[in-house]
Design a protein that fits this description.
Helix content: 40-55%
Strand content: 5-15%
Oligomer: single chain
Order of helices and strands: HHEHHEHEHEE
Distance between the termini: 35 Å
Number of helices: 6
Length: 213
């Protein structure tokens, strides 16, 4: 295994909002390839209860975008203006811009669980999310390796039932996210600025950084 290539994939799979190619078509087979890879992720109790809803219909994408815009546009514009940290400000500005372009992103993917986790206890909820989050991230990594990009968004979940009705998602399923998928404009993504691992890692007890003895 080429560790350098794997490390590059892991450190440069960015949340892509502004560099999505809105005009280049995305074929069905490349989406299915990425889903096949995502299905290798572990699932709680080997339930394999992930489900993938792929939306390419322009009318449905527009309807989802309208819901997304109604939930997030005003808040994100305010957050971008008020954020004091430049990196955070850019993130909010990019998220706000996505509310304006989401309808034009050629593919929307909604990862779901084929069970309902409302009002679950912590153990049940954590196990359920552990079935879809690893698969979702594997899907995003697979996109990156093929020159596509996306961002893990959850804004539409504030009006989840409306999206469910639009797409025929049953009440027994749980939507986990919305991935707007497109080829990226360029592939020269870099690692993000993050704090040193030693400053956020505790050893044997909470509050004791790695460097302390």
């Amino acid at each position: 295994m080429d560790i350098a290539t794997v490390d590059e994939l892991l450190t440069t799979t960015r949340a892509v909002r502004n560099r999505l190619d809105l005009d280049r078509p995305v074929g069905r087979e490349v989406i299915l390839e990425c889903i096949r890879l995502a299905m290798q992720a572990p699932t709680a109790s080997n339930a394999q209860d992930w489900r993938w809803l792929v939306i390419t219909d322009a009318g449905k994408r527009a309807a989802i975008a309208d819901i997304y815009h109604s939930v997030g546009a005003e808040y994100l514009a305010y957050a971008a203006k008020e954020a004091s940290d430049p990196q955070t400000r850019r993130v909010y500005a990019g998220a706000q811009a996505l509310t304006e372009t989401l309808a034009r992103v050629p593919v929307h993917v909604i990862p779901c669980l084929d069970n309902r986790i409302d009002n679950s206890n912590l153990l049940t909820a954590a196990s359920a999310w552990a079935s879809i989050i690893p698969a979702g991230w594997s899907f995003l990594l697979a996109l990156r390796s093929r020159g596509l990009g996306s961002v893990w968004t959850t804004m539409h979940l504030a009006r989840e039932r409306e999206v469910a009705e639009l797409l025929g998602i049953p009440d027994t399923a749980t939507q986990a996210a919305l991935f707007p998928v497109a080829y990226t404009i360029g592939t020269d993504f870099r690692p993000a600025k993050r704090p040193p691992a030693e400053t956020i890692t505790y050893w044997d007890a909470w509050g004791h950084p790695v460097g302390e003895r």
